[in-house]
Specification:
The protein has helices at residues 5-18, 33-49, 53-72, 76-95, 99-134, 149-165, 174-182, 195-204, 210-243, 250-281, 299-305, 308-319, 329-347, 351-374, 381-403, 407-419, 426-432, 434-447, 451-463, 466-483. It is mostly helical and 496 residues long. The protein folds into 2 domains: 37-204, no CATH class; 210-290 and 377-495, no CATH class. Helix 9 packs across helix 18, helix 13 packs antiparallel against helix 14 and helix 15 crosses helix 16 (407-419).
């Protein structure tokens, strides 16, 4: 087959034109090859413009909005509108002396942000429940959830609240604020960035050091391995279990649950690693978002290690405003419960997410209530193991409700594990899915590697010759090719 010059030019023009058109079937995300091609084009231009903060800011904002357009279409206009309203409100609020007027403006911004989020994320959820309550027949609304709306809404709320409290001053220009709100590494799936941590970095406009650039590359490579190699590979079996739970044995079901426990960690922490790495190459620090959460010995520790940016946000903007631990024992437990209930609802408009959050809230309350007793238990390897095992089992079982399509499927999965489990089937499973099992065992082992060793390995990579770095990069590429599925699966947290 041959092509004429006009046909070739037409094909090239069409492909180039597609770069500026939103394709709902192929949104541009970190898992898209086109993103990394464009990022390689972006970087040298960014480096040239870095000397001028204004030029750099305009360029990054333009790229961020383009990235969001390619991810969610015309919803990028809503992001612009949100940023403009909240920036104007914060500027107005900072000039007012009257506390009541300031508070009214703050609540106006919060209610507006939550109303927009509520419409896109929860309107049909309320319609379904209203239909069930009054036996009505309202048809669901044709609503498309904008990617990342939960993340940038929480960022915007925290900014307005912090301005109201006087923790930060409003940005002098709207350009600085939309830079903060639309910063593309963290835009569609976090981490949730705090203004008091991020905006001073923008003000300083420091160039990344050589160590930071190579450290950022290391995080990107680790994130790619976690997502494209580990999470996507083990997901192939996990999906079979969750899609048809009644069809599988107790051993298979248990492995699927353990697989999803590790899959969601690798998937989301892999994205966070990539986001943090990209930002670091650009000279911005986003902060750690995961800290080996499955090492936790209780739920309190787990939520200090899992999705740290969200857990700290819920603590500072929900738990503490509710009263925290300042209003007695019962209110402390209730505030924990309500905070996690909100956290569950944030994850999705379904009762299973509410239940997931409620059970985590109840678990946190029980742990706090039992603290005086737990302190009297000797701290040795046996008790450490028992506490770790109880925490891991509890978290893993709750992931079932998080992942399963319905409560009925969740119950079926748990029943399979406890009723239809036979130890003699484990060798058969290992033989049938040897690569999957080896990957899971390796993942669990690496998860318990001390942070000091992980930091040392990163230091060796940063200090190694360029040929070693190239070999590491090529190794990661080869691993992705070997283990990748037919289609690159989207990141789990994009749905939130």
């Amino acid at each position: 087959m041959s092509f004429s010059i006009p046909e070739l030019n037409e094909t090239v023009a069409a492909k180039f034109g597609n770069l500026f058109l939103y394709d709902p079937s192929a949104p541009m995300l970190f898992s898209s090859g086109i993103f990394w091609v464009l990022f390689l084009v972006f970087l040298p231009l960014y480096a040239l413009l870095k000397r001028s903060r204004i030029q750099m800011t305009i360029f990054v904002v333009a790229f961020s909005l383009y990235f969001y357009y390619k991810s969610s279409g015309l919803f990028f206009l809503m992001l612009i509108a949100t940023s403009l309203v909240d920036w104007l409100v914060s500027r107005w609020m900072s000039r007012l002396k009257d506390k009541n007027a300031r508070r009214s403006l703050m609540w106006f911004s919060i209610v507006l942000s939550l109303s927009i989020l509520g419409y896109f994320k929860y309107a049909n959820f309320f319609l379904w429940n209203w239909n069930a309550m009054v036996e009505a027949n309202f048809q669901p609304l044709d609503i498309i959830l904008p990617v990342g709306i939960s993340f940038y809404t929480f960022q915007s709320i925290s900014y307005v609240v912090d301005v109201y409290k006087g923790k930060i001053s409003p940005t002098r220009t709207w350009l600085d604020y939309i830079f903060f709100l639309s910063f593309f590494p963290a835009l569609v799936a976090g981490p949730i960035v705090r203004a008091d941590y991020f905006l001073p970095q923008l003000e300083k406009n420091e160039t990344a050091t050589s160590d930071e650039i190579w450290g950022g590359l290391w995080l990107i490579l680790i994130g790619i391995v976690k997502k494209a190699v580990i999470a996507d590979y083990i997901a192939q079996f996990n999906d079979l279990i969750f899609n048809d739970p009644a069809f599988y044995t107790g051993v298979q079901t248990l492995m699927g649950v353990l697989g999803y426990t590790m899959q969601i960690y690798c998937d989301f922490s892999g994205y966070s690693d990539m986001a943090i790495g990209i930002a670091l190459i650009m000279g911005f620090k986003l902060g750690i978002n995961f800290d080996s959460p499955y090492q936790s010995r209780n739920l309190t520790e787990f939520w200090r290690r899992w999705h740290i940016s969200l857990s700290s946000w819920l603590r500072d903007y929900v738990y503490i405003p509710l009263g925290g631990n300042r209003k007695g024992t019962f209110r402390t437990y209730l505030n924990n419960f309500l905070t996690m209930l909100i956290g569950g609802l944030w994850h999705g408009a379904a009762w299973k997410f509410v239940f997931w959050g409620a059970m985590h809230g109840a678990g946190l309350a029980v742990h706090k209530a039992c603290k005086p007793i737990l302190k009297r238990i000797p701290d040795n390897w046996f008790t450490i193991f028992i506490f770790w095992l109880l925490t891991f089992v509890y978290v893993s079982l709750l992931w079932v409700f998080f992942r399963a399509a319905s409560f009925e499927d969740s119950v079926t999965i748990i029943n399979n594990i406890f009723i239809d489990f036979h130890w003699n089937q484990i060798p058969q499973f290992f033989e049938a899915r040897m690569v999957w099992c080896i990957m899971m065992i390796s993942l669990i082992v690496f998860h318990f590697v001390p942070q000091s060793i992980a930091d040392r390995v990163q230091y060796i990579f940063v200090r190694s010759p360029w040929i070693v770095k190239l070999l590491c990069f090529l190794t990661v590429v080869q691993l992705v090719i070997e283990f990748m599925s037919e289609e690159v699966a989207p990141f789990i947290y994009f749905q939130f």
